[in-house]
Design goal:
Low-confidence stretches: none
Largest sheet: 8 strands, mixed
Radius of gyration: 24 Å
Helix content: 40-55%
CATH class of one domain: Alpha Beta
Number of strands: 16
Structural class: alpha/beta
Number of helices: 23
Length: 556
């Protein structure tokens, strides 16, 4: 049986299934006899869960450590504790039910976000609350340790703490019926190098305890109990993919370039120092997108200039002369923060967010820009604004950077190109700016008027779409005409085949997750610039995404 889902982590695997059942705790009903004692039990359980997650984080590294540390912080959040204690005190709820109930409003607020990353964090909030409830009830958490042979883990979804325990030598694949490409399950699978497919409809009904399961994390395909000849084909594919990855990882990490020496900067998308360390270890030549809004979330007051400058200076020091591109805060109606009251509106994704919010609260932006300028004293720093839709917005942003001292500090100024109007005025933008960075994730959904969280419209989220490619070449030509460099920091930049087309279209910088760097570097090294340009011309003339994708091989 063949099933389809969302490709979440590249690679191919075939192994017996290990079905991990989602066991939500059976929550007791109230009322409790001694609310004060029950509140004490809750506080102790929250402390134990937070300490356990932090210990697991301290023992790990990279994205896994960062994610677990974030969950430990969630459990320690005084607002969650106060809300749960209030339910115990006022409604006499048992502690296990109180913590799950208290966490739900936070989870619902996150799940309503237009940002896939923030929406996926709703599962993390629910996980830490249920993990605390299980501790209160004396129930064990799922355990993926102690495996004796390779397996493909099959589940509804997995919590970060459970995923982080996976041994990639034994958990050779991961398939879930829930989750998304931006869920922590998927992020950790990529960081561990485990092939994964998520959001597979009908998965748990199709897989039995003794099923053989194949996972194609590139195509988003899953096969259950294939016939012997097909199983042999899957094993060969898995062996070939593993060998290719090993060769790419073992190859010298030269600067990104095509076979004939045309330089393409290969940078990384990061949000933390831990992510940056992992990216530098994978050969990143700089940071093409620093996500800064994470510093603002779940706070009653925004971070001050000194705090932001300290964090940025640490990143600049790690980069040691490589460029850091800072995206100013990208939150608003679609990503609410506690210290601002931003009306949601009928469609928050198209509401007051990004630079629109900055224009309403310039003090927040000015504080961040002053921190950026301070960091620039230690190395090359660039700054870009998100969701820019007009030339006036870009000019206003340039003025704010200048007023903060950006000119004197040598800070490059650019904008994100993720709104269709920005593509149409790319010539005007390129005249005013040092660079343009294309965010393919949002640009793709806005070009097609298709919400990228809507599974039924997944086919319209393909960056090989002729419309997306036409937008990229429009921006690249504008940049070339006016001396502004053009980069891509969306997910498409990490796709080796798409990267070849982007270079052929005129893109000079590609920024991606650390795990994608080796694959893109190897793909570029295998083609000369003229071949990339010819493939790009064929792709631009294609009638659909599949034909554009095929353009890479049709001329070779």
């Amino acid at each position: 049986m063949k099933l389809s889902g969302v490709a979440a982590s590249p690679g191919t695997a075939l192994a017996p299934a290990l079905v991990v059942a989602a066991a939500d705790p059976q929550l007791p009903d109230g009322p409790v006899d001694d609310p004060q004692a029950e509140a004490g039990r809750l506080q102790a359980a929250l402390d134990e869960v937070s300490a356990a997650l932090q210990a697991q984080s301290d023992a790990g590294a990279g994205e896994a450590a960062e994610i677990l540390a974030a969950q430990a912080t969630m459990v320690a959040d005084p607002e969650l504790r106060d809300a749960a204690v209030g339910l115990i005190r006022d409604q006499r709820l048992p502690a296990a039910r109180a913590v799950v109930t208290a966490g739900e409003p936070y989870a619902e607020a996150l799940s309503g976000s237009d940002s896939p990353y923030l929406a996926a964090r709703a599962a993390d909030v629910r996980d830490v609350c249920r993990r605390t409830a299980r501790r209160l009830l004396g129930l064990a958490d799922p355990d993926l340790g102690g495996l004796r042979h390779p397996v493909v883990v099959v589940a509804d979804d997995l919590a970060p703490a459970d995923t982080a325990r996976m041994d990639p030598a034994l958990v050779v694949g991961l398939v879930t019926s829930g989750g998304s490409r931006t869920s922590h399950t998927a992020i950790l699978a990529r960081s561990l190098g485990v092939p994964a497919v998520v959001a597979v409809e009908g998965l748990l009904a199709a897989v039995g305890a003794e099923s053989l399961v194949g996972v194609d994390g590139d195509a988003g395909e899953v096969v259950v109990d294939p016939p012997p000849d097909e199983a042999t084909t899957w094993r060969r594919r898995a062996d070939a993919v593993a060998a290719k990855r090993e060769r790419a990882g073992a190859a010298p990490r030269e600067p990104g370039a095509t076979a004939d020496g045309h330089r393409v900067e290969l940078a990384a998308n990061v949000g933390t120092t831990i992510e940056l360390r992992a990216a530098l270890a994978a050969g990143a030549e700089g940071v093409g997108l620093l996500r800064t809004e994470l510093a603002y979330l779940d706070r009653s007051t925004p971070p001050d200039e000194a705090e932001q400058a300290g964090a940025l200076c640490e990143l600049v020091a790690l980069l040691d002369g490589r460029r850091l591109v800072v995206r100013t805060f990208d939150f608003g109606a679609d990503k609410p923060v506690p210290f601002l009251d931003v009306p949601g509106g009928p469609n928050p994704a198209l509401g007051v967010r990004g630079i629109r919010l900055a224009q309403r609260h310039p003090d927040l932006l000015d504080t961040q820009l002053r921190a950026v300028v301070r960091a620039a004293a230690g190395g090359p720093v660039a700054v870009m604004a998100p969701m820019v839709a007009t030339l006036a917005e870009a000019e206003w942003f340039v003025e704010r950077v200048t007023a903060a001292g950006g000119d004197d500090a040598g800070v490059e100024v650019g904008v994100m190109v993720e709104v269709p109007s920005a593509v149409l005025i790319a010539q005007a933008l390129a005249r005013e700016l040092a660079f343009l960075s294309i965010g393919t994730n949002d640009l793709t959904q806005y070009l097609h008027a298709a919400d990228r969280q809507e599974g039924a419209l997944a086919g319209l989220q393909d960056p090989f779409s002729p419309a997306v490619l036409a937008a990229v070449v429009t921006v690249a030509r504008a940049g070339e005409a006016h001396g502004a460099w053009v980069g891509v920091c969306g997910e498409a930049a990490g796709d080796p085949e798409w990267a070849l087309l982007a270079v052929g279209l005129g893109v000079r910088e590609l920024s991606m997750g650390a795990a994608s760097l080796d694959g893109v570097r190897a793909a570029l090294a295998g083609r000369d610039l003229q071949a990339c340009r010819q493939a790009a011309e064929r792709a631009l003339a294609a009638s659909d995404a599949d034909a554009a994708r095929a353009a890479l091989s049709s001329g070779s």
